Amino acid sequence: MFSFVRAPDVVLAPPPPVTAALLERAAALPRDSRDRGVTMACWMVGRLVQLRLGAPGDRPTPDALRSATDAVRAWVEALPASTTARPALRRVCAALVAERPDACADALDALRLAARAPLGASGDAALATLADRLRDASSANRPEPRP
Asked: pTM for this one?
């Protein structure tokens, strides 16, 4: 059913509290279910978003983040063809590589809608928190408008 691609080590590091809910949800689902694969993919992109949001000294280099995102993207492509969440997962990865936090937040919102059933309430809340943090970080980095 699935072909497995090893996730990058940066994604496999211990999960921070926000994405831990996604990992716990995936662990509760049947091992060979499509919902588990979708939830794991949501966890992986959530983990990448958290890395992007980290403190400047804790963030991976742009090349390392791009490499990790490419590995996650390959894993997403291995999901079953009927997965409705795949386009939204692709959008999150593309926005991360393009370093567009607002677009990434919008893609996370689309992902929440596409994967609502497998995510459950806790997974949905985790992705909503990440989208809000991206928007906050984006607005904090915008220059003030000139009069």
From this structure: 0.80
